[in-house]
Amino acid sequence: MKKIHIALLVLIAGAIAVLLTFLKTTSTYDTVDTAISKPGKYVHLMAKLDKSQPVEYDALKDANYLSFTAVDTLGKSVKVVYHNTKPDNFEISERLVLKGKYNDGIFNCDAIQTKCPSKYKEDMKPTDKKLQTATTESPTSNNSAESKY
User: Potential cystine with 30: which of 43, 60, 116, 123 (Cβ 3.0-4.6 Å)?
Assistant: First the structure.
């Protein structure tokens, strides 16, 4: 075998090792049921804040304790404990990505990523109105200049 062939084989083996490493670190969003079925395993839980349940957070007493109930897309709820400061836009977020582990009936969260509503949703309403008025106007109103000649 030539030296170039050996070098190419080593490069290919290295590339495969790097890809396998990346595959292990990727994760998908889990539901509450799948998090419960994997106790102690680190998961990413996609959920919403259950606004009918109380949120326990007192910045003066303990700024690094937040407890709330989260509901996933299937309607299953879980109590979440987060040992860090409350995210700024926590109450107004549409979705929460909770990263952590489920143990003994509680989801111990290491990180919370908030997914806020799009700022462009409100901007689309005036645009829709402009489009509707533009399409409902009759084309003959623009021809008034032509009718003079």
Answer: 43
